[in-house]
Amino acid sequence: MDTEDNCGRSMTELASAFSAFRDLVLEQWKLRVSAEIPTAAKLGEPLLLNMVPSLYDNIVEALSADSPRPFATAGTNLAVSHGRERAKMTEYAPPDLLHELQIFREVLFSITKARGMELSKSDAEVIGHSIEAAARESIAGFNEADREKSISFIASLSHDLRNPLNVANASAQLIQLKSSDPGIIDLAKRVCKKITEADAMIQTMLDAAVLHGQMGLKLQLISFDIIVLVEEVCADFPLLGQHVSVVGESIVGYWCRNSLKRVLENLLTNAQKYGDSSRPIKVQVQHEDDLMLLSVHNEGVPIPKTEMYQMFNRYRRIEETQIRGWGLGLPYVQNVVESHGGTVVVDSAEERGTTFTVSIPVDARPYVKQ
Asked: 3-state secondary structure string, 179-237?
């Protein structure tokens, strides 16, 4: 017997059963992860869960009849974003990341067996491949964010080094002015020259860090209703007659209003540039657990698979388009969201269209470095 999910697709009996015990799997997973991974025990629920509920939902979708998603991470950077979040917001090491996904697999198969459900070879392969792919992609995201942290450290260290150099340079110049000894003046000039060379090298390091690093933003957190901001931005946004539909609920939280306003404007601009101009853009706001989910969806040509994992790199645009731009929008979006303690996930396929989903804690204050 088949049922339908809330998107109208046919669900197999197996997928329907998996959907029914979703909460049980997530609860047992949370308990085991908190007990078995020491660095996870101190995480609050929004941070601990992160992308795991979405991974589970995608597995259910992949098990559904005639699903356009062959496995859970197909057409989405979901797992990559999870790895980045673990690197930036937790004390995880790569083995911890693998461990929590291994626990997820064990819990899932254990509950399936306890319920007396028999998996076909193909169903087991879908689940196994989904979790293995999530593990690989999460590690890739973790390593990427870890490299960015190293670059940020270099940038901070370089900036601090310039302060004593400036003092030394000023002192050497003062010696030149005060002394009448040609030997001392010549020595002071040599000191100034070497300080200038050192400062140039430090500036090069700073430029490289700004170019390649994801520097954390300074946020001004205030309490406001996100749906009010969404409606305000969508009403004012110049979309050349293209309709924008807004669906959602009132969610009052602590975020940086100006930064999230720019995030939504960037996502709407992308939806307009790369989407089908004859189809409406859909903006949705949801409250899930302790998270606020803000998504922007457009129909049209999907993001090429080769671009999926590179589109958040600075100064990079999607290549298969005639539209010009500096490629700074999506890296800015990612930086704002991660600075709030959240993630941004893209899901794109011809059958589903393209959806960018921003997921951040309703109260971002515990996750923001002041």
From this structure: CCCHHHHHHHHHHHHHHHHHHHHHHHHHHHHHHHCCCCCCCCEEEEEHHHHHHHHHHHC
How many other CB atoms are there within 10 angstroms of residue 303's CB atom? 20
Give residue 205's pLDDT band: very low, low, confident or very high (50, 70, 90).
low
Nearest-angstrom CA–CA distance, 5 and 233: 31
| CATH number of the domain where residue 229 is located | 3.30.565.10
Mean pLDDT, to the nearest integer, of 197-212? 63
Instruction: Return d(Cα 106, Cα 14) in angstroms, integer.
Output: 18
- What per-residue confidence (pLDDT) applies to 218? 73
How far apart are alpha carbons 75 and 363 in whole angstroms? 30
Q: pLDDT tens-digit profile of 229-288?
A: 999 988 877 665 678 899 999 999 999 998 899 899 889 988 888 888 888 999 999 999
Q: Which pLDDT does position 320 carry in this prediction?
A: 42
Work out whether strand 221-225 and strand 10-11 pair parallel, antiparallel, or are unpaired.
unpaired
Assess whether 80 and 182 both reside in one domain: no
| Domain span at 259 | 221-367
Nearest to 370 by CA among 256, 155, 260, 218: 218
In the block, tokens 């509950």 appear at 111
Q: Are residues 187 and 164 in the same domain?
A: yes
Q: Do 153 and 130 lie in a common domain?
A: no
Q: What are phi and psi of 308, to 5 degrees?
A: -55, -40
305-364 confidence digits (pLDDT tens):
777 767 776 544 444 443 333 345 788 888 889 889 999 999 998 888 999 999 999 999
Beta-carbon contacts of residue 367 (< 8 Å; ≥ 6 apart)? 47, 89, 340, 341, 342, 361
Residues 186 and 63 in one domain: no
Q: pTM above 0.70?
A: no
Residues 29 and 101 in one domain: yes
167 and 303 assigned to the same domain: no
